[in-house]
Design goal:
This protein is an alpha+beta fold. The chain is built from 23 helices and 19 strands.
């Protein structure tokens, strides 16, 4: 307590500070300035909390380090990719220049009526666009190959990831099998990433395309960048247009227009949903799923495509069901697949720069008659199915031609659907046997000898220096004594043929045979008469055509007109005939024709007879039955048949008058079924009052006759 006893007033705020001087007006308060925003200090990493925090600390640090590098590297990579994409885009030519860049052209063949029956080379039916093809085809391609085509920028990360997952799940490498490629990427691959075909670098276009289809990681990366460049340079519809024109769709078809014409005989703008689905289905494996190779497989694949189109809303359930219930089928021309051997022969025999090495699309009109071709094919199949033992590897060939050499049908082997196969009708050189004998008698008749002239069919020997005498026999191992030329030919007797050949002179016989088209070296000695020389079936058939046409040489031909596609100007000067110079007198040819009718009526060729028709022909069988022939003709057609083994082993129980004559008969029965019989141009000669007998005392074989050649001499008809 204080000593003065007065109560003190409490302290107030005003008294805590010195009082302001009296009499002065207080200065107005200044508006306070907002406090300056201080720069925030860097946020320090929070200290790890607990044991787990300390354990995660190194990982957090590594993650931040990786991220710091990744986004920078990603930015640089994106800039590089973008730069290359822009570079590729700047190098892209106009879309139209990429539509058809084939290094080789194509050949389309028509028969004598103008109907297409064969195609060779890479067919290009003409440019189509994404707007001009059938809407169903447009949708089928997108649904099958790239359903996000209109939503991506050239590559589809989702598609790639899905493809890698599928490949790994199926035990393949990540880049093997499913590629996850977009239509743009596939188009880039079709363009070989802008690398053109160079014959100096690649031997063939096939090798070039194989190189373009590499699936290395580097190739895939370049493909993706090229695809981005395409997306910059072209619209989606332009990319799709390139794809529709450049895709390979089997059977030599490049582009959907060619494929639609090849398989269905219509334009790509006309295909229905089922046909569109089949065409789109070929993109995955064109060679194995082509309908000409396996129609059932192509239809099964098309059904899957129809399902995709329905699933993605391109087809209603009703339309999809209709397409599945009525699958696409081949056109009649594509279905027939006729004349493959004939087409191969035309390609080989035609002008090289318009056939085998053409750089243009060529249209060739040929002499083929598809009805006759079908008849020959059916006959061959029928005989082998019904009269040849199961498992036999024997082969046969057939050629049908007109008297001027125009080939109407050709079968080069039992596999009638083959293309590019060995053609036994044109490529097989075989001994002709007794089928050669008509040319001996042609030479004799041309010299004025009568068909009724007598020849002594008796055992005759020819000496050989340093070897035993050569004493040929007849097929029946008998000798009948004096026999007329006509009977000797009908019974295919060997001794009379040799005697006549020796009498008229071997050189003349060779000249007559060569004039009629028998090519190659001919035997120098008397064995010449027994057909030890070799020839092809087409040459032999052409030689017999020379007999039918009155004695003129014939050059077999199959090409009558050649034009560039889209151009009406013919590029060849064809006379429409293969007839050449005269070889024997017409009277001799007509008498020989009559003699050859006796072969069919009463001789070795009786199996070839057709009721109501005059038929002339000749059988032929070589030593050991290694070759069997029958060549015959009516007033309209000459048909040749050969039968044998490719390895030259003997036939079992077959002669020219057996199965070859049967095949000939079955062919011509079909060919002549709806035709009125025509007479053969022949002369029945007057029988002379008397005639001498041609005999031989034997002779010495010339020095250049080879012993082993004589061992192969024909001993039968």
């Amino acid at each position: 307590m204080s000593g003065n006893g007065r109560k003190k007033s409490p302290l107030v705020a005003e008294r805590r500070y010195p009082a302001k001087p009296a009499g002065k007006k207080a200065a107005p308060k200044k508006k306070a300035k907002p406090a300056a925003r201080r720069k925030a200090a860097p946020k320090r990493p929070s200290k790890p909390r607990g044991l787990i925090g300390w354990l995660l600390l190194p990982f957090r640090w590594v993650f931040r380090l990786i991220w710091a590098f990744t986004w920078r590297i990603g930015l640089v990579t994106a800039l590089i990719i973008g730069g290359f994409a822009l570079y590729f885009a700047s190098q892209m030519p106009a879309m139209e220049e990429l539509i058809d860049q084939r290094a080789r052209g194509s050949v389309t063949m028509t028969d004598l009526t103008g109907q297409v029956f064969a195609w060779r080379g890479d067919q290009f039916g003409g440019m189509v666009t994404a707007d001009t093809v059938s809407e169903h085809l447009h949708n089928a391609v997108v649904a099958t190959e790239d359903k996000r085509f209109y939503r991506h920028f050239g590559i589809s990360p989702r598609g790639i990831a899905s493809a890698v997952r599928i490949n790994l799940r199926e035990g393949r490498g990540p880049l093997s099998g499913h590629g996850g490629s977009t239509i743009t990427q596939q188009t880039a691959k079709l363009l070989c990433l802008g690398v053109p075909y160079d014959p100096a670098k690649w031997d063939t276009e096939t090798a070039y395309e194989v190189d373009c289809r590499q699936s290395s990681l580097w190739r895939k990366a370049k493909e993706a960048v090229f695809a981005l460049g395409m997306e910059i340079a072209y619209t989606k519809e332009e990319i799709l247009t390139i794809y529709l024109n450049r895709s390979y769709l089997g059977a030599g078809s490049r582009g959907f227009e060619a494929a639609a014409q090849r398989y269905f005989g219509i334009s790509a703008s006309q295909v229905n949903p089922a046909q569109a689905a089949m065409l789109a289905g070929l993109l995955k494996a064109p060679s194995t799923t082509a309908p000409t190779a396996n129609l059932g497989r192509a239809q099964a694949r098309a059904e899957l495509v129809v399902g995709l189109m329905e699933e993605q809303g391109y087809l209603s359930a009703t339309d999809a069901a209709l397409a599945i219930a009525n699958p696409a089928t081949l056109s009649e021309a594509a279905k027939a697949r006729t004349g493959g051997f004939f087409a191969d022969w035309v390609m080989e025999s035609g002008p090289e720069f318009f056939t085998r090495d053409t750089t243009e699309d060529v249209i060739i009109r040929t002499t083929l008659d598809q009805d006759i071709q079908a008849a020959a094919e059916e006959a061959l199949i029928s005989v082998f199915e019904n009269e040849v033992r199961e498992g036999s590897e024997a082969q046969a060939a057939i050629v049908v031609m007109s008297a001027d050499g125009a080939v109407r049908a050709m079968v080069g082997g039992r596999n009638i659907k083959a293309t590019g196969a060995f053609n036994r009708a044109t490529q097989a050189l075989r001994q002709t046997g007794s089928a050669f004998k008509p040319f001996i008698y042609a030479a004799a008749l041309d010299l004025g000898m009568s068909p009724y002239a007598l020849v002594d069919d008796q055992r005759t020997c020819w000496s050989r220096r340093g070897s035993a005498d050569w004493c040929p026999e007849n097929y029946d191992r008998q000798f009948v004594g004096p026999v007329t030329l006509v009977d000797a030919l009908a019974q295919s007797r060997n001794i009379p043929a040799i005697l006549v050949s020796e009498d008229v002179g071997r050189e003349l016989v060779r000249n007559v045979a060569a004039g009629f088209g028998i090519q190659g070296d001919m035997a120098a000695g008397p064995a010449l008469a027994l057909g030890v020389s070799e020839s092809t079936l087409i040459d032999m058939t052409g030689a017999f055509a020379g007999i039918l046409n009155g004695g003129y040489a014939v050059t077999p031909y199959g090409l009558t007109d050649l034009r560039i596609q889209g151009d009406n100007a013919s590029l060849m000067d064809s006379t429409g005939s293969g007839i050449g110079e005269r070889i024997i007198d017409e009277e001799a040819a007509r008498e020989l024709t009559w003699m050859m009718t006796r072969v069919v009526e009463q001789g070795t060729g009786q199996r070839a007879r057709i009721d109501g028709w005059e038929i002339a022909g000749k059988t032929g069988t070589t030593q050991g039955a290694r070759d069997a022939w029958f060549i015959g003709f009516t007033g309209d057609y000459v048909t040749g048949v050969w039968m044998g083994y490719d390895d030259n082993k003997p036939l079992s129980g077959v002669t020219g008058g057996g199965l070859p004559a049967t095949i000939w008969h079955e062919t011509m029965v079909r060919v002549l079924a709806d035709k009125v019989p025509t007479s053969l141009p022949m002369i029945v000669p007057q029988q002379p009052a008397s005639t001498g007998v041609l005999t031989s005392e034997g002779g010495e074989v010339v020095d250049d006759d080879i012993s082993n050649l004589l061992d192969n001499i024909l001993n039968g008809g």
